[in-house]
Structure formats: structure tokens, C-alpha cells
Amino acid sequence: MSLNYKYFALVLAVSALAGCSANRVVRFVTPFDAEAARKQLEEGSNNVKGSALIRQAGGGVVTCAGKPVFMMPVTAAAKEWAAQVYGTSRGGFHNAQGRDIKFKGRDDMFAAVKTATCDAQGGFKFDRVADGQFYVFTRITWVVAGSIQGGSVMRPVTLSGGQVAEIVLSPDSL
């Protein structure tokens, strides 16, 4: 997958995280170490398998089927991003009807990601991942009576030594 597609998809995901409420512009203050992030994106011996889902109030389940899942190296700038979107750098859920966040001055960070696509059951995988810490996140939404429901879910994962990490991205699992 080309870097341009990754960049475009991630920027779309970040800019579309929320509904139609008033915009809040966030200017990053933490410098981004692009070289360290790119090094973490080199091939390694770890794998991540996962699924992403949101359980609806009525008991139905919606997955990320057909949507991108992103893996971003955890850097100081990425921690700042996570705290702005999810309220913490330790994983979280951002409601689609919440505040709309526009990021300024950090396009280089959003280009430094790995991308996978959820299968029909909401499963995804990242193969040959380097040792390190990463944020794994996706957006799961649906429409009810013209209103966007769901949101974005993120979880950190730490990899080392050729492990296979299995994760679930769901507000219920945080």
C-alpha cells in the first residue's frame, strides 16, 4: 500500500472522528521524531491479529468490515494526539457525535503509519511488525435516523521478540 494512500486514509479518519459539532483546532506542541517513527515501521518479527466491534444498545454488533485500521508508532507527538482525541494515551473511545477535532502542523506524523483493512467479520492483521509500542485504531460507524452512531476506538500494543499479539478494539474491552 502506498504511503500517499496511508496518509490520505489516516487524515480522513482523524478529521472524520466526530459529528457536526463546532470545530476545535488543535495545534501540536510536541515535536515529532519522524526518523524514530519510520524506524519502528520497518519490518520485524512480530504480528498483531485483532478484531474491532461496537455493541449497540439493542445488543447488535457493528464491526469495522471493509474499513481501514491504523498502526501508529507511539512517540511523544502520538501521545499528544491520543490525549486530544481519546482523553488519554492509554486507549479509548471517541464518540462519532462528539466534538470535531482538526489538527494543524502534524501531517508528517499521520503519514508514519501501517494500514490494514478489516475483513467481513471485523478481523484485521499486521504482519512483520518491528519491536516497539504502537497505537492501533479504527473507526466504526453506522447511521440511525440520519444520525451517525459509533465512533473511533484505539488501544496501545507493545511488541517484542517475535510475539503474536491478539487484541480487541471495542469500547467494551477498554
Automatic annotation (TrEMBL):
Keywords tagged on the record: Signal
Signal peptide per UniProt: 1-18
Protein name: Lipoprotein
Gene source species: Azohydromonas lata
